[in-house]
Write a structure and sequence with these properties.
Distance between the termini: 20 Å
Structural class: alpha+beta
Largest sheet: 6 strands, antiparallel
Helix content: 10-25%
Order of helices and strands: HEEHEEEE
Number of strands: 6
Shape: globular
Number of helices: 2
Length: 123
């Protein structure tokens, strides 16, 4: 899948299966905020992209998904290293899916997110 934003921040899909995904990236200096911590938007991008990847496997040929809303809680600061995100579909209806993501750095849970995604055929 062509994903220019993921390429920009170095986000990679590690695994994508039916209703689950794992994505990761390596924290680089350009992903830090002024305090030297990985910007919250970077962790959010991991969750958002991981959630979309978890849903994508179940989409019909002409269907796409789009983020409706995501709530994320940040638990620990991330300064360096690899950050990974495990996502799983909690519930998938005909037009809406709910997905959870856990974001890890150095084996520690650093954020948890829950999101809803619209499922539709564009056009």
């Amino acid at each position: 899948m062509d994903h220019p934003f993921a390429d920009l921040i170095g986000l990679q899909v590690v695994e994508c299966d039916s209703d689950t995904s794992e994505v990761s990236l390596t924290v680089r200096p350009e992903l830090l905020n002024p305090n030297g911590v990985a910007h919250g938007a970077v962790l959010y991008a991991l969750a958002d992209t991981g959630m979309g990847a978890a849903i994508a496997y179940s989409l019909g040929k002409d269907e796409i998904c789009a983020t409706v809303e995501i709530k994320i809680n940040y638990f620990k600061a991330v300064y360096e290293g690899t950050v990974s995100c495990a996502s799983r579909v909690v519930n998938r209806g005909k037009r809406l899916a709910n997905v959870e993501s856990d974001v890890f750095a150095s084996g520690r849970l650093v954020a948890r997110a829950n999101g809803n995604f619209a499922i539709f055929t564009p056009g």
